[in-house]
Amino acid sequence: MAELVIALDYPDAAGAMTMARNLVGAVPWVKVGLELFTAEGPRMVTDLKELGFKVFLDLKFHDIPNTVKGAVRSATRLGADMVNIHAIGGRRMAEGALEGRDLGLVPGQEAPILLAVTVLTSVGKGDIPLENAPEPGDLALDLAVKAKQYGLSGVVCSALEAERIKGRCGGGFYCLTPGIRPADKGAVVGGDDQRRVVTPSQAVRFGSDFLVVGRPVTGADDPKRAAESIAREMLQA
Ligand code: C5P
Fold first, then answer.
1. N or C end: fewer C-beta atoms under 10 angstroms in the chain?
2. Contacts within 8 Å (CB) and 24+ apart, 154-158
3. What are the structural domains of the chain?
4. pTM to 2 decimals?
C-alpha cells in the first residue's frame, strides 16, 4: 500500500519540529530536504526519528562516484531510512552510492532505500536546457530503466510516469512521487513551482509507492487534518 511522506521544507528546526509534532501518528514518513538540512544539519534526522518517523533524506546527491559513496555512507550511518541520488550521474556514481550504503550499515540496521531522481516534477519540456529536448516523461522512463539496471531500489518521478515505469521495471521497483496536489485545494501556500502534478488518488492508481506532499499539508490551516484527508483518499484509491 502507498505511504505518505510529508516534506518538511522549513528554514529552521523550530518550524520543522513544530510541524512534525503536529503530524505524529498521522503519517509514517517525513522528508528532510536541502533547505532544512543546510540550516540545521544531521540532527534533524535523529530528532525526527526520535519522534517515531521514518526519515527520507532528500539531498539528491550528484557528484563523482567517490564523493557520492562517502555521502551515502554518512547518510546511512546517520540512520536515514531513504536516500536519493540523481540517475543522470550514471552507472559508476550509482555503484558508488550502493557501496557507500553497504559500508555505512551497522549490524542489524535495515539498509536505507536508495532511489534515483529521474526528472524533477517542476521540470516541463521547456525547462530542459537542451536544443532537442526529449519529453520529460520519456527521459524519466529511460533514466528509470538505467537506475534499475544499476541495482537501485526505485526512482523519484512524477506520478504521471509511474505506470509506464512500473510496466518496464516491474512492480517491486519503487516510484516515489512528489508533485501531488489534492483536487479540492486552491492556490498552494508559498507559490507553486510544480508542473507535472496529479491528485493523491491518481498517484495511487498510477502505481506510486510513496507520495511526497509538502505545501498542501504544511501550508494548510489544519495540517494534521489535511494529511489525514490525503491518507484517507489514498486508502480509498
Ligand atoms: O510543496 P511540495 O508538495 O511541492 O513539495 C514537494 C517536495 O518534493 C519538495 O520538498 C521538493 O524538493 C521535493 N521534490 C520534488 N520533485 C522531485 C524531487 C523532490 O518536488 N523530483
1. N
2. 154/113, 154/115, 154/116, 154/209, 155/87, 155/115, 155/116, 155/117, 155/118, 156/84, 156/115, 156/116, 156/117, 156/118, 157/118, 157/119, 157/121, 158/119, 158/121, 158/196, 158/197, 158/198
3. 3-236 (3.20.20.70)
4. 0.95
